[in-house]
Amino acid sequence: MTQVLTDRFGRIHDYLRISVTDRCNLRCVYCMPEEGMVFEPEDKMLSFDEIYEVVRVLAGYGVRKIRLTGGEPLVRRHLETLVGRLHSIRGIDDIALTTNGIHFASRAEAFREAGLTRINFSLDSLREDRFRLITRGGDVNRVLQSLEAARRVGLDPIKLNVVLMRGMNDDEIEDFLRLSMEEELHVRFIEYMPIGHDDHGWKSRYLPLGEVLRRCEAKGWAAQELDQEVRGNGPSKNYRIAGAAGSFGLIHPVSDHFCQTCNRLRLTADGNIKPCLYWSDEFNVRSVIGDDRKLAELFFRALDVKPESHEMAKALENERQSHTPTERRMSQIGG
């Protein structure tokens, strides 16, 4: 039997999230500062050939699912070509994309034809003025147009990622829940995480996701937990309001972490394996690409240091942590 990517705690890793760039056309408040970001030069980014080689090797060790992230992945030129190449690898049966949607509508058909399976749109507000504020300049209508384009070309499921922030967009919880009731969309509320922040400002915006269920109850909406996860790779706990066309999910890494079921590794745009999103451990792959055995060994080595859990809840309570949190911003990791 072929060896699979398993860590010290018996967790099998069949899912690789690949950041293709640390650049973005927006500046979302929870992801990167408005100015002062230093981006990696293009020649430091993994090439499509290098990404292909990494995935080809890992497919032989049980990786079946790929998600392309950024930064904003669509600022990487000719990304459809990479999707097509990854789709051709034997064993890869699921290729997903997380995007802010600003530039997706005109390319939806090309991505679908290349082999894209599913898509997630980052959509933290349905209101034009607030969306512009959160993203520091984005146009929500372009995201909605991309959502319709994804539906038109048959991508399924279509998920909306909503980072909930106290005092910023938490008054739209009901609006997003109604959207899940009216349309066959899957809204995923995500807790604000302390990724790459050098201060404690995120705490004032942090909101436990139990608030979403409380709002459902207050509205008299009966939300039933789904026995089966909406198709995908993610850690959300999923619900459907009675009679709804779609569903909603809760991703709560701080208030109720899901590390015991973690099945994912991350590859940053500059070629570093991150065993865990939150901790600082990284292993650069560039020097071993071309040597299949050494590349596989490096991934197993990364898994050997993967902790049993992150400790974001301790960060919230100012408690001492067992490892060193990453100083990278979310855009530099590929959330």
Radius of gyration: 19 Å
Give the distance, in angstroms, between the N- and C-terminal Cα atoms.
Answer: 32 Å
Catalogue the unreliable spans. Answer: none
Quaternary structure type: single chain
| Sheet of most strands | 12 strands, mixed
Discrete helix count: 11
CATH architecture: Alpha-Beta Barrel
Would you tell me the overall average pLDDT? 89
What string, H for helix and E for strand, traces the elements in order?
EHEHEHEHHEHEHHEEEEEEHHH
Beta-strand percent range = 15-25%
CATH superfamily: Aldolase class I
Give the CATH topology. Answer: TIM Barrel
Shape: globular
CATH class: Alpha Beta
Derived from helix and strand composition plus strand pairing, the structural class reads: alpha/beta
Cofactor: [4Fe-4S] cluster
Keywords: 4Fe-4S, GTP-binding, Iron, Iron-sulfur, Lyase, Metal-binding, Molybdenum cofactor biosynthesis, Nucleotide-binding, S-adenosyl-L-methionine
Function: Catalyzes the cyclization of GTP to (8S)-3',8-cyclo-7,8-dihydroguanosine 5'-triphosphate.
Subunit structure: Monomer and homodimer.
Tell me about this structure.
The two termini are 32 Å apart. The protein has eleven helices and twelve strands. The protein is globular, with a radius of gyration of 19 Å. It has a single domain, classed as Aldolase class I (TIM Barrel). Helix content is 29%, strand content 17%. Strands 7-8-9-6-5-4-3-2-1-10-11-12 form a twelve-stranded mixed β-sheet, covered by helices on one side. It is α/β, with parallel strands linked by helices and 335 residues long.
